[in-house]
Write a structure and sequence with these properties.
Strand order of the largest sheet: 1-2
Number of helices: 6
Largest sheet: 2 strands, parallel
Number of strands: 2
Mean pLDDT: 86
Radius of gyration: 27 Å
Distance between the termini: 51 Å
Helix content: over 70%
Shape: elongated
Order of helices and strands: HEHHHHEH
Strand content: under 5%
């Protein structure tokens, strides 16, 4: 039993584990910053369009309430249908722009994924060259409660991507 436990401990302790902070790396890349600015501008423009549509629906509803007592039953029904249709179109627009597979998701994928791929390729290359068994990402959902800076390879990846670091 002790031999098996000792062998397991030896194989675990022999693994090389390092970490990087991909958020720091990405934030240091000018092309990532440019892509993020473009995404922010698109998001802002679409949010304004949606807010304008909400304001228009609100205006339609208030006008309907103010005139409801003088409208014929057919006119009431028509106005209610117009408001419901406008709300449906707005929800469809929100889903098309900001939904799970919406235009924003596609634009982010188009602009950011090639940059992320470049970073992950640099990480992979470093890991293979240095024979690391695991490379953890400090910025993702992994909880690293303590990390010795000796194992932080963020600066090394940044250098391989041509990014100047504070150490330079």
């Amino acid at each position: 039993m002790l031999v098996i436990l000792g062998a397991a401990f030896t194989s675990i302790s022999a693994q090389k584990i390092v970490y990087v902070d991909t958020q720091v790396i990405l934030a240091s890349l000018p092309e990532y910053q440019d892509a993020q600015k473009e995404i922010d501008l698109i998001t802002e423009r679409w949010q304004k369009q949606i807010q304008d549509s909400y304001d228009e629906i609100d205006r339609m509803y208030r006008a309907y309430q103010a005139e409801e007592i003088i409208l014929s039953p057919d006119d009431k029904k028509k106005r209610e249908e117009d408001i419901i249709q406008a709300e449906k179109e707005l929800k469809d627009m929100q889903k098309a722009k900001f939904g799970h597979e919406g235009e924003l998701f596609q634009k982010r994928k188009e602009l950011v994924k090639p940059i992320q791929d470049k970073v992950y390729e640099a990480i992979s290359k470093m890991a293979k060259q240095r024979a690391y068994d695991f490379v953890l990402d400090k910025s993702s959902g992994i909880s690293i409660l303590f990390a010795n800076n000796e194992f932080d390879k963020t600066a090394e990846v940044m250098k391989s991507l041509g990014i100047e670091t504070a150490d330079d």
